[in-house]
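FAQ: What does the model actually see?

It sees only this:
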Amino acid sequence: MQTTVRQAEIAPPALRILAFVIDSLLLLPLNLAIGYLVLSGFDPISLFRELQNSQRFDFFIIGSVTQAVYAIGFVSALQATPGKLALGMRIVRADGQPLLPDTAILRYLVVFVGNLLLEIEFIISVFLMFSDPARRTIHDRVARTLVVRIRRETGSPESVP
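And it is asked to produce this:
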């Protein structure tokens, strides 16, 4: 009897970075739309042109809130963001237990604190993805999670170790 078996492997760093880019591109139009709706005289170009732009902090808050809702919501519900889902990845707990909303919140809080520290968490996490055999970032280590790539294979159940 043939059956579909799912096997997981640690997701490679390049795939995780690509998922991050996809998620960022999905969030950008939403952040810009919210900026136009809630910030009077919103000019996204000036955010990057002028060092002393008064809307820069406001836009950071908008981005942080949308990123929190996006990351926590999708990871809690689907164990992955849309970028990770599109590339066949899932976030799992290292101990094999189900991933609960508290784990998704913890993962995001570590990322948020890193963003407050001028992206230092991102830089260290990229380094860790390439140097750690389990490809864990700072937020993976704190939340005790792994990002895995799910592959579908067809075969008999006896052939799976």
